[in-house]
Write a structure and sequence with these properties.
By secondary structure, the protein is of the alpha/beta class. The protein folds into two domains: 344 residues, pyruvate-formate lyase- activating enzyme (Alpha-Beta Horseshoe); 36 residues, no CATH class. Helices cover 36% and strands 22% of the residues. It has 13 helices and 16 strands. Strand 11 and strand 12 form a beta hairpin. Helix 3 crosses helix 12 and helix 5 packs parallel to helix 7. It is globular. The two termini are 21 Å apart.
Length: 403
Amino acid sequence: MCHSLVSKYNISGPRYTSYPTVPYWDMDSFSLKKWKASLIQSFNESNSTEGISLYIHLPFCESLCTFCGCNKRITKRHEVETPYINAVLKEWHLYCKLFNIKPKIKELHLGGGTPTFFSPEHLNALITDILKSATLAEDYVFSFEGHPNNTTEAHLQTLYHLGFRRVSFGVQDYNLTVQKAIHRIQPFEHVKKVTEMARQIGYTSIGHDIIFGLPFQTEAHVEDTIEKTKALLPDRIAFYSYAHVPWIKGNGQRGYKDTDVPSGITKRKQYEIGKKRLSEAGYLDIGMDHFSLKTDTLYLAREDNNLHRNFMGYTPSKTQAMIGLGVSAISDSWYGFAQNTKSIEDYYHLIEAQILPISRGHILNNEDLIIRQHILNLMCHFKTAWDDNTLRFNDLPRDTHEA
């Protein structure tokens, strides 16, 4: 790729998880009342057919990983587990009160933070209580993010018995120098152990997350990490770019210099060599940093034209409504977005007051909805068309245009 193009576009921007992206949400026209109305409308339109998606944010980690852009609270005090789970369950029941029938859950994902910071017993209590207030779609999918250093057989067994069949493990990079810089010492043997254990228990989709552009990382490090990953053959891989934003992430990313982070040109080379090695190993490019084997549901969904992307990433099927529980979690009614407060203390206070802990959001207008669908088409199907009358602006000419 032309170096001038890489330099031109190698700038910081908002993480693309929605349209409009979070920094461009219109708070002036947003209200909790409007958010509830949009969710109720979406639920009534889609719950009986699609069901809903449920994302649960579990923010606690025992140590700080400097590559991480998620909202987290660093602590070794596990007594925080019970009050947090109780608050999440109260938030769930506040949402359930909005609906005239039980929600039908199609997808459920545990993210973080570190979901496996929580004990298997507490995770069991959380999921069991949620399911008491819901029904399950026939083809439901439960998934969670596991830390290879602390995901135990008990975690895997407990969640498997609750219906989980997908797990993703954060690998990042296997080079020790890189691992020290990002404060994530994680030997290959740990990843190998949990990957094989999950497979033996019966998990049908195991994912690995790999990052390029990390401090002190080289093309050789990326190649070595992918070579080791090939030996374990996870079903899907997320291969994405490290975001160096010390002015946002604070001291965590100030442990190394800007010059220790690969340049834009180098990052592009790391991505290209990584993508080539993944292709050689049989992984197909699903889109926007996701790869999978032909046997994985992501690839099958792409082939069947059912691939979808939401705040949880790529999924093999669509739900119109997604509810996010826990601090900083984002919900999506299709007609609007809402994000919870990022402060655990504020979250507890609002939940105890029986108030949904929303801190900001956006209600989509007609133009937003049209652009959003076009972008989804491009991300999931690599094309979109203007001849669909439902995706047209009134002032567009009537000829067919395809992008």
